User: Fold Leucine-rich repeat-containing protein 14B from Chunga burmeisteri.
Amino acid sequence: ATMKSLRFISAEAFVSNAEFARKNLSSVAHNLFPLLFKASYLLEQGEVIHDLVENWPFVEFNMGKLLETTVDYQEDLSHRTCSVCLESCLTGLRDYVLNHPSPYVKRLKVVDLTGIKDVEVQFCECKKTMGRWARTQLLSKLCLELLVYLQQTQCNPGILEISIDVLIDLFVTERNYELVVQALLKKCSCPLKICCVAFRSDNLALQKFFYIIKLTDPSLLRKLEIVHNVRLEMEHLEILFNSIHFPLLMSLTLPARTFNVRRFTATDEWMLTNIGEKMGEMTQLTELSVSFSILTGRIQKLLSPLKTPLKMLDVSNCSLNHADLAYLANSFHANHLEVLDLSGHNIPDLYPSIFFKLLSHSSSVLRSLTLEDCNIQDTHVNMLILGLRPCQKLEEFKFLGNPLSSQALKQLFTFLCELPMLKNVEFPVPRDCYPIGITYPIDDASLCRFDHQKYESVAEELNLILLQANREDVKASTPLFGSYDAAVQETNNELGAYLIKSFKETLEKFTTSLNKMS
Assistant:
């Protein structure tokens, strides 16, 4: 268990009786509020959290800072997205605006909700989480309720002077689009001002995306993720970059099939150059994800205008060729890459030596490497170990979907124990657990058709290798359907419904054309 100071234990005792704590809050010294907040969060004392936020005495309320490791209690609670606690925080914020008799006590100017991290395993008692989508939804709803209330009642004129910036990572889909748009449109007249620091959109029509992104104030945006089921293609991206400036953008994720060089015309080449130049103007850009686009031979065109070296690059399944990898290995990005994903490329056959050059250039900073479905076989394991040996800062290595035997995995694990910072390994189901003659990459239908008992015993042996090397700190797993994505997890019903709908439409079209033929 994590050590708690005497102060923290006293704070827990104070907030554990909610009624008592709420009655006596007015006599508590202001400098104890942060301590009481973290204690209430740990114990999920929603009512106390509400009252602490409603009476917050400081200029800033920064969720991440309040919940991270503190002197009094080492444990970081910022990855607890507990529904009870978060809802209490947000309603407390609304009531902060409404319930004070005197305006001069109000000092709060900035509320920062961006430090909340969405993770797979929740440790809160209630086991109910409030993800990024739901936080977007609730904050928008509260802002609109606040406006309605202010319009209907003769309220204290002091309220109208309140202006609090609420920094948040918005997540918008078709289902919460209207609500968020209304809240952003009425931002000027609302005491709580939504300030969008990061924006993610899934499952949204293009014109809606273009409309809402302008409302978010793109000049403040640090992270933009356009992920699943937003039909953004290269010409739309060019329009986006030509019509909107993103001076602070640090991280950009584009949806699958944004680029497809196989269909390129001369105009497309020019367009790609223009997009590269626009990205070059984003002087803060250090993270780029363009997975599942076809970019053969064009990586240099896209990345060479960048003025700042990339720290994170995801070019998985982008059909890169030797020239692309050679550009990457020799570019100034190579020495700065902390996170690299080259999944879906046949590395051993196409460009082993240039890949190792890239690895050696980034070895002093590389923290996460993903090589899924790269056709890495038993004969390549020694070479892979040589390439990984200098990567002493590596914390995460994912290599699902490679045709490796259990013997090769054991050899690899024995080596992985030597990487001092390693925390997370995602390894494939061994080839010898599948029926003979299985072909890689394995299709979804055959993915689960392996000998589960044999897999379990191999997994046990691999964990034993870690244990014997005193590496209990390393988590090794085989997430068959890819790594956890909090955003997809939260909105999977909506995404699923969309996919079923589009599948049905495709079937109907197919049936119609069959009927025409007959």
In short: Residues 131-206 form one domain. The chain is about 45% helix and 10% strand.
